[in-house]
Amino acid sequence: MNMKKLIAILLCAIALTAVSACGGQSSAPTEATVGATDQTEDRTEAETKAAVTKATETAAPTSATSAPESERAEPVTEAAYIPTEGDSEQLLVIETGGRVFYADFEDNSSAEALKENLKGGSITLSMRDYGGFEKVGDLPFSLVTNDEDITTSAGDVILYQGSQLTIYYDVNTWRFTRVAKIRGADGSLKEQLGEGDISVTLSLG
Q1: Rounded distance, CA 146 to CA 127, Å?
Q2: What is the pLDDT of residues 35-74, one digit of tens each?
Q3: 8 A C-beta contact, residue 118 and residue 141
Q4: When you count CB atoms within 10 A of the terminal residue's CB, does the N or C end of the chain come out lower?
Q5: How many CB atoms are located within 10 Å of the residue 45 CB?
């Protein structure tokens, strides 16, 4: 009888040991799972903060770039060769492509004849490039000539054969009549006048 009790006690002890072992194994993964979950949450929070910081840093230069809007240079629409208060003589006003040029008349009868024609109002000429050194257009009237041998420079307004007006932006030597000279003209005059065919309005100023 005592042997049976002993065996029973041993069996109970073995059973209890087995139950305890199973309980320990089931609780360990739970703790590991909780730890992994905490690490995932921490990493997600860190990644979110990093993304927000990067977005803020990326957006900052955009506002800095758009800020100098008022500092952008406006396109030049008018030449700086303007008359002064001390001018007593009439000037030839040349307008094209939004730019305005002022030229001093020559002291000859051709220039005087041009002035007389412009007193009736402005005229508009269609002018084209010729020879790589001038713009030339047909006048709606003929003028008396005062031809002489001339080597042109940028800004010379030339009468050719009494019926054509040219604006020189480069050098040429020929026999013709200078009627005016654009103030302050230099090597940039070709660019200022524009490429190809242009419309030019002449008036008195």
Answers
A1: 22
A2: 444 554 555 455 555 554 554 444 444 333 433 443 433 3
A3: no
A4: N
A5: 10
- Write the pLDDT tens digit of every residue in 193-204: 999 999 999 999
Q: Which range of residues forms the domain containing residue 47?
A: 2-71
Please indicate, yes or no, whether residues 95 and 189 belong to a single structural domain of this protein.
yes
pLDDT digits (tens, 9 = 90+) for 164-189: 999 999 999 999 999 999 999 999 99
Burial 3-36 (b: 16+ CB within 10 A, else e): eeeeeeeeeeeeeeeeeeeeeeeeeeeeeeeeee
Q: What pTM was estimated for this model as a whole?
A: 0.61
Task: Kindly write down the DSSP assignment for every residue of 55-104, as one continuous string.
Answer: HHHHHHHHHHHHGGGGGSPPPP-S-S----TT--S-EEEEEETTEEEEEE
Q: Could you tell me if 56 and 106 lie in one domain?
A: no
Tally of structural domains, the chain: 2
